[in-house]
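Homework help board

Subject: predicted structure for assignment chain

Our instructor gave us this sequence and asked us to write out the predicted structure in token form, then describe one feature. I got the tokens but I'm not sure how to describe them. Can anyone check?
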Amino acid sequence: MVAGYPDSLLNFRGPLLRALLAAGLDVHVAAPDLPANSEVRQRLEALGVQVHEVPLNRTGINPFSDLGSLFNLWRLMRRLKPDFSLAYTIKPVIYGNVAAWLAGVPYRFALITGLGYAFQGEAGQRSWLKRIVRNLYRFALARVNKVFFQNPDDEALFYDLGILDWSNRKTVVVNGSGIDVDSFTVAPFPETTQFLLIARLLGDKGVREYVQAATAVRKQYPWVGFGLVGWIDENPDAIDSAELQSWVDSGVVKFYGRLTDVKPAIADSSVYVLPSYREGTPRTVLEAMAMGRAVITTDAPGCRETVVHEKNGFLVPVKSVTGLAAAMINFIEKPELVVGMGYESRLLAEAKYDVRKVNDHMLREMGIQ
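My token output:
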């Protein structure tokens, strides 16, 4: 398994790694920033996973650095001779699968967990980066056995853009990364209405719209709380520290910073909000649903799959501060919706997003189970 961000191996792929080990496989992972004293590395090794640190800059666009990553992945796979490879996120999917193809790995798989910075923005914006990424994706995905998507919109877009070939359909849509519904149990609600957003602090996550809607709502309902969990990411679209500080100083949001365990923050909330412009399937929404929280999110790819409008939450237009504020006010003025829609969220999490069901689906499609 090739990853660009080491924490994701435990936070997002931990149950899948356990399922692969339970299937009797020797499991290796390759990712950057995994020195011998790394807590993530030690936890992975405690599971029985064999860990390999490889240089990989997940956000940079230096071609020489990326070629170095490709070479190191190829050399590792030549040495290990794995039967299967699975890579996720942009650079691991591209360079991990090209390396696996060059190294002669028989069964190669890609997991598209979202489209990221290179696919966001209006027409004309980031166009040069979009062209490069699409061409690299096209080359790499032509050399895999199967591509997993986390929502049907991303799958259709890859075919429509010519990244994948309609005549050689080899894609499967799975229900996100899944959620351990036994670990995220339903929590009691706070006494007053509290909203929460958990996200990397990026413009494309809708963080600014969340703060603007919170500002508008608090003028009418000053007792309502708005929590924000996250961190400033190494990304061209990142919120800068000065802007974040201005939000905190204004008192509009309560900033928790980056949390290793988000359960207490979700438990302190009434409704979870994610105004993202596009996702694969948002993990934080699934966590909130499993804890019995209603959801406000955008009618955008990846987001819209998690909400049945007016059943377990509300879908609002992308970038609509007024739509976001109106949905929030609906919960404030009708608190019974918080409980009823939260109950429906939990039922949907159990039925559709249970991680065991998601992983079983993937292993069957990979020919492992």
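Reply (TA_rk): Your tokens look well-formed. For the description, you could write something like this. The longest strand covers residues 107-112. That's the kind of observation they're looking for.
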